[in-house]
Amino acid sequence: MFDLFFTHINQKVNLSEAEQQEVKTFFAPKKLRKRQYLLQEGEPCKYLVFVEKGVLRSYNVDSKGVEHIIHFAMEGWWMGDIYSFLSGDPSGYNIDAIEDAELLMITLDGFEQMMVKVPRMERYFRILFQNNIISKERRLISSISYTAEEKYLRLVESSPELLQRIPLNLVASYLGITPETLSRIRKKLTQKK
Question: What predicted TM-score, i.e. pTM, was given to this entire model?
């Protein structure tokens, strides 16, 4: 179950076999069924998870009951509310499975112990957190600066495999547009070809 996990880690830092065995001890496997929650708004985020199989989404619901998708995670990606995970404060997000999922979960205590026992993992997570900050900054710029069509085209370019697996209404929510607008954009782009 750890094959993809260590492939992903070894793309950023090289772990010895002994370090890999040590890292394994901090993670617990978990399976989620489609639509099953990993985290519900108002609960503290107790786990940071690596997606071995499946797709998760992180979202919040506004006062009108409209879902706003913050993040998707598929195989090889991490998911969690990092603020809640590190602070213990209640999360402002829900996280659930879009597809049946297999996860590797780590608690905050395990995370801290792992950093001490396997220092290369601290470098690995520093790289991930840096990339996450860059990604969030780009998403913020996109949401305030780009047209709906430009947002969609950027998503097509950056994550085509994700678009094959996620329903269009969820893609629209992630882009901050209505499903009808997304449908018009897709139709227009198809006609251009």
Answer: 0.90
